Amino acid sequence: MELAPLTPVSLPRSIALDGTTNFRDLGGYAGADGRTVRWRKLFRSDHLAGLSSADLQALQALGVARAVDFRGVQERASQGYAWPFLEQQVLGIEPTVVQRALALVQQGHRLTADETVGLMQDTYRSFVIDNADRFARLFRLLQDSDQPLVFHCTAGKDRTGWAAALILLALGVSREAVREDYLLTNQLYRRPAELAAKAAQSVPQDILDVLWRVQMPFLDSAFALAEQHAGSMDRYLAEVLGVDAAARQRLAQRYLEG
């Protein structure tokens, strides 16, 4: 009797926690050789400083043992965390372009939404070359162990979004699915009410809507620079981030089903 092929298990992608709004699983996407990304191994999130005791129990139940924090110095100082079961690795990337945009507004410069989109594209282009070493280190961490890992910045949308895109591409996930995952932030992320109220006092709403959401032109600007620099995303992964064929095989063994 021939057995029917196993159907990949589908689990909730977004995980509801009291202290985050954008915590989600990268599992379930179709990857290389028809294999799917393993559930409950790779998570992306906004920052973890506000987790409740129930949240911490939920993370432990998921087996999450490692956290990669992409936030800058001031972000970590104002919203730091140290959870005993969670080994934290800081790969700090300063949000310099966003800081510059807010400074311009506060100095009286009337930014347009289009100018702000351009500044966000500058942010993403800075990930590609200027901060490539941080993302290369992320891939080394992923190869060192398959203990469940969460990576995050403050809102879990830009630095985290680029990291998620790179990981999924390295696992053979299609560009279309990568974009789908990236845009989920607009459905999930909720600005902290106190921060939103404070920002609204000095920054026009159309500018905040650009800064606090994601758009495909942001991510596409990073793809375009990586491809211009290396010739293709595969070559960028291999030559700039050190994710060559052997590394991708190791990643597949850890994070793809089958």
UniProtKB/TrEMBL annotation:
Molecular function terms, GO-annotated: phosphoprotein phosphatase activity
Domain of life of the organism encoding this protein: Bacteria
Domain Tyrosine specific protein phosphatases: from-to ranges: 133-202
InterPro entries recorded: Prot-tyrosine_phosphatase-like, Tyr/Ser_Pase_IphP-type, Tyr_Pase_AS, Tyr_Pase_dom
The family this protein is said to belong to: Belongs to the protein-tyrosine phosphatase family.
Protein's name according to its UniProt entry: Protein tyrosine phosphatase
Annotated source species: Comamonas aquatica DA1877
